[in-house]
Amino acid sequence: xxxxxxxxxxxRPQNNLIAALSVLVGALVSGVIEDWWRVAFAxxxxxxxxxxxxxxxxxxxxxxxxxxxxxxxxPKGEISRKSALxxxxxxxxxxxxxxxxxxxxxxxxxTIAIIFLIFYGHTLKRKLFWSNFTVSFVSALAxxxxxxxxxDFALSLIPAVFAFLFHMGREIIKDAQDxxxxxxxxxxxxxxxxxxxxxxxxxxxxxxxxxxxxSLPYLFRIFSLPYLIMVIPGVDLVLLYVVWSMWKDSSTxxxxxxxxxxxxxxxxxxxxxxxxxx
Length: 278
Description:
This protein is an all-alpha fold and 278 residues long. The protein is built from 14 helices and no strands. It has a single domain (2-275), classed as UbiA prenyltransferase (Tetracycline Repressor, domain 2, Orthogonal Bundle). 79% of the residues lie in helices and 0% in strands. Helix 8 packs antiparallel against helix 14 (252-275) and helix 13 runs antiparallel to helix 14.
């Protein structure tokens, strides 16, 4: 039982669920769904690919996690690095195979996501800007992945842009949270290269821009009034609170709390976009 629990922790099921729901919302926003089985395969595929990326990330981050996150399965010795690698590759393979049952473009998107996740874990995670960009890009790609299950995926680009900015800001906050471990291992991130205050300022700009953008789908009558009613208190006010709180207290514990809050808030953002279509 302990091995199963450690495996679940390694894959980060909550992140994978968000990826699957993002695919679902991307499909629902894009238009009429004719083949629900395509959407189901896309959601499962995204779930497995996300899980594979999380496992691979922990595989490469053992030394950093010994400082920043010693409670993770690998630094605790609950799972070996070799096992984590094989689990990751197996999950990637399952996710890629499922994409073949959707559409040809789905195979391309799944392949791109896997390549980015592999390079992220191996190299890009330690590169200034590219680390944040990769996570944000792959997260945004999930909505497009859902959109291509329908005949027109254009509208899926709206939540994709929102997701990109949301994740970009959250990733910088997570970098600030991991500042101590990253600095000791010479990881290149915005906090280690430009300082905590610059990172907080950059996050503030990103979230401010995102808040401005969230009203546009309603103003252009793409999404309905219920979307606006939900997105303002459910997303925009949360982002404002995060900005206020991180400037007031930039301690590791508070930044970790805000990062968790933002992860929970993703569900509200997904719900607002879904409701906005009606």
